Amino acid sequence: MNSSLRNLAALAAAAVTLSLFAAEPPKVGAAFPALTSAGDLEGTVPDLSGKVVLVDFWASWCAPCKESFPALRELHEKYSAQGLVVVAVSIDEDKADMDAFLKKNPMPFALVRDPQSKLFDEKLGLTGVPVTYILDKSGKVAFTHGGYEGKKTKKLLTEKIESLLKN
After folding, report:
1. Active-site residue set
2. What's the pTM value of the predicted model, to 2 decimals?
3. Which of 86, 83, 81, 82 is nearest to 70 (CA)?
């Protein structure tokens, strides 16, 4: 076998090996990784046991993420007393970027940072932001949504949260 074919075969084998170990985003009904043991998250994760949890992955440089924050605030304010916990997970590498955004846009819900994307990329296999997960009271994925489409997304999130809080 010539060197070009050997190199091509080695690359193909490496790609197959990587795909065997690449994380797949959790699907509806699957358990979501425990945020308290997710690795290198910076910040405090509140008690999530028995709660409906909205986990939102975002970054300070992401325009749709910025647009979604007022809706997340409204959902937190409307449903937290009924058992909703909102946790926003920043994937900003530089803490100063996140802090500057939050100084201009303070939020009343839990904010943590995944600076090396260990949860975002390695455990969940996500590739873009914003991504929102809603977890049922047992910690399983009940709903997932990529992107933010204004009122349409807020309506979807509201409907799912209200349904899960009733159960």
Report:
1. 62, 65
2. 0.83
3. 86
